[in-house]
Amino acid sequence: MDLNFTPEEEAFRAEVRSFLKDSLSTELATRVRNGEELGKADLEGWHATLQSRGWLAVTWPKEYGGPGWNAVQRHIFDEECAMANTPRIVPFGLTMLGPVLIKFGTEKQKADILPRILDGSDWWCQGYSEPGAGSDLASLKTRAIREGDDYIINGQKTWTTLGQYADKIFCLVRTSTEGKRQEGISFVLVDIDTPGIEVRPIKLIEGGYEVNEVFFSDVRVPVSNLVGVENEGWTIAKFLLTHERTGIAGVGASTQALHELKALARKLKRRGKPLIEDPLFAARIAEAEIDLEALRMTNLRVLVDASGGAASNTIASMLKIKGTVIRQNLDDLARRALGPAAAPFPLDALAGNLAVAPQEAAASAASYFNNRKLSIFGGSNEIQRNIIAKDIFGA
Amino acid sequence: MNFNQTDDRRMISDSLRRYLADQYPVEHRIKIAYDAPFHDPKKWGELAELGILGALVSEDQGGFGGEGFDITVVFEEFGRTLCPEPMLGNLMGLRLYAGLGVQDRVDAIIAGTARTALAVFEADAFTDTSEITTSAAKAGENWTLSGRKSLVYGAGAADTLLVAARTPAGKIGLFEIGASAADIHAYSMIDGGGAAEVGLDNVTAACLSEDAREVIEAALDAGRLALCAEAVGAMDVLKEMTKDYLMQRQQFGRPIATFQALQHRLVDLSIEIEQARSITIHAAGTLDTPGRALAIAKAKNLIGRAGKLVAEEAVQMHGGIGMTWEYAGSHYAKRLTMLDAQLGDTEDQLRRVMELMAA
Q1: Do A395 and B274 touch (CB under 8 A)?
Q2: Is B221 exposed, middle or buried (0-12, 13-18, 19+ CB in 10 A)?
Q3: β strands within B157-270, DSSP E
Q4: pTM of the model
């Protein structure tokens, strides 16, 4: 047992910290901290900054333009980014499609697509869920019928995050209705401005726009856009979902959220005393901190064990469940710390400098509502329990 | 970073696991845990020979371990078999003797020829050493103790007692008495193993330290860490028993393990057990650092919550059989539930975390 980071890892942390200090503007960090919705230019700008240092595609091997980091390095990078309040890395091209192409793509697909993800030429989005296929993803109905060298796609995808900014979408489509449902699915790449595609925004519970519906009517896509083998897309879908879950413990982000929560509870006054001195509220914070401490160690146990490889299904699912519940609890506490001052609609509160709540906490209620998604997406927490149960009971 | 045990610790854990499985089969354990003297005295010397006691103190104090992970390795195995030997009291006493340089006692305990117990808490002071009322009086060079200590783990099996008492200067001192000098009323606990009420009526004592609060807190934290590890071992076993039961028990024409409602509950136990294991590792790594008190309070708080959940859910998922004395699972559930109250429960630990957070 040795719970310390190696001197090399500490040096790496210092290197990351110093890079972030030099390259993240205070203005941008403040907007991230305040929970403001970032636009396309903000996110692309941050991607470019990271890419200039070679640190954008954190999960990619060196030969494809990634930094070639191991799991512990990625963890350190993630922690430092969270503490510095950087924008997040938009995952669809970088942490989802990239690893899929590296594992399943042709040489031509890798050569054509990966560099354009790195330099920001293409913004990708994800076409998985459908109105009738959420947790039961394999029941998806969007149909791709082969016609010569093309597929003709008809159907609908939904919950497409940041699809409004996208140039391209990777989709799970049904290429066969024979045999088991899982055996008729294919993984296809589609230009979003192909005729027949319509993207419609969905307004979310807190008032923000981050997800969309995507409609396909007679959309013609060359068969060369198929990734892997026709009707074997389910294997890719599962591979991608495991990658999606691995970072989802969100230890870095929750650590930062806890730090902000404590600062907030020191700043706010209740009955003439700082909120953090109210034993009932302090107890809730303390309990959240204890749960996060354990999660941090669970995450490290997994990282060190997996040493580079993707985590096993069961552990990734455990981290997803516990990580999302802890994050949601922290958001809940920040919202409740404000009491009625959490109520002003965030756009009004931020734009109008209402100053009912501290500026950095004005979007607390919005974040709380928005992050209810955490236990729903990426495979709901109930689906994660099914995955773990399968492992425990061997069924 | 490395989460593997050293070869030495793995050897201790392997040999202890084999020994305990062999010597404390569940029927035997249930019998000795409730009949005076509430443990199996014949086995103590063998445990000493296995090096279990020596593992609890450092090399320069006469042992060959003494780090947090040495303690957790031993107690995790104790938890797996619900071993009722009075190891907790001896761990805390041994670390106090070692810390204060009482070498002949350290050597005798490590050799298995002497046993001790730590008498700190009282009926009105179960968690906070500052509330101790047992008093130490000094006449010339001689000290005497008066008061009453409660729930002294392993006192009935001890040769000496280490007693925390308030000195005339108002400090918490640490004193040693011969066990026969005190009025000891030993009993078994509901989850097995022995504790005692200790009456002190002008009992002659040797003073080991007139200002011992710090060293006593450190020994108590070592005890808390041990309890965390014991709970992890017990939780692992009880979870496995529950899983096996769900897979074997048939209702409505199929194993009840096929019902999602039960599957998800066992999954939730598994997640909490991993969290419990993680925070125990974290606590073990801080035993000899300035972060000790906070890390151990965090660990024992989480262990208290996880242990109760695992205990209650295991009984519930077993149904009637989980309610029976005959079934081993019920004894694990009792141990996991009652362990929380030892050396400060979930709420006490949470209070410590809050105090340390605010500081």
Answers
A1: no
A2: buried
A3: 160-166, 172-178, 183-188, 194-209, 250-251, 254-255
A4: 0.91
The model's pLDDT over B101-125, given as tens digits with 9 standing for 90+, comes to: 999 999 999 999 999 999 999 999 9
- List the single residue in B2, B267, B278 with the smallest CB-CB distance to A388: B267
Delimit the CATH 1.20.140.10 region(s) of chain B.
Answer: 215-358
Residues of B in contact with A3 (CB under 8 A): 1, 281-282, 285
**What interface predicted TM-score (ipTM) does this complex get?**
0.88
The fold for domain B7-114 equals Butyryl-Coa Dehydrogenase, subunit A; domain 1 (1.10.540)
Can A210 be counted among the known catalytic residues? no
The amino acid sitting at B244 is D
Question: What are the residue ranges spanned by the domains of chain A?
Answer: 7-89, 124-232, 250-393
DSSP H helices in A185-278: 233-246, 251-267
Residues on chain A bordering chain B, Cβ-to-Cβ distance under 8 angstroms? 1-6, 9, 72, 262, 276-277, 279, 282-283, 285-287, 289-291, 293-298, 300-301, 304-305, 318, 321-322, 382, 385-386, 388-389, 392-393, 395
Determine the average pLDDT of the residues in A115-133.
Answer: 96
Q: Is the Cβ of B27 closer than 8 Å to some Cβ of chain A?
A: no
Say if the Cβ atoms of B282 and A293 lie within 8 Å.
yes
For domain B215-358, the CATH superfamily is Butyryl-CoA Dehydrogenase, subunit A, domain 3 (1.20.140.10)
Q: Which two tokens stand for residue B220?
A: 């108590």
pLDDT at A245: 63
pLDDT category at A244 given cuts 50, 70, 90 is low
CA distance B145 to chain A (A): 37
Top CATH class of A250-393 equals mainly alpha
Q: Do A1 and B2 touch (CB under 8 A)?
A: yes
Please calculate the CA angle A142-A146-A151 and round it to the nearest 5 degrees: 60
- The CATH class given to the B117-211 domain equals mainly beta
Give yes or no for a contact between B64 and B55, defined as CB atoms under 8 angstroms apart: yes
Q: Which of A1, A385, A389 sits opposite B3 (nearest CB)?
A: A1
- Band (A356; pLDDT cuts 50, 70, 90): confident
Q: Terminal CA-to-CA distance of chain B, rounded, Å?
A: 29
Both tokens of residue A245? 């879950």
Q: Which residue of A has its CA nearest to B10?
A: A1
Q: Which CATH class is domain A124-232?
A: mainly beta
Give yes or no for residue B100 having a pLDDT over 90: yes
Cβ proximity of A157 and A194 under 8 Å: no
Catalytic choice (A9, A244, A260, A289) = A244
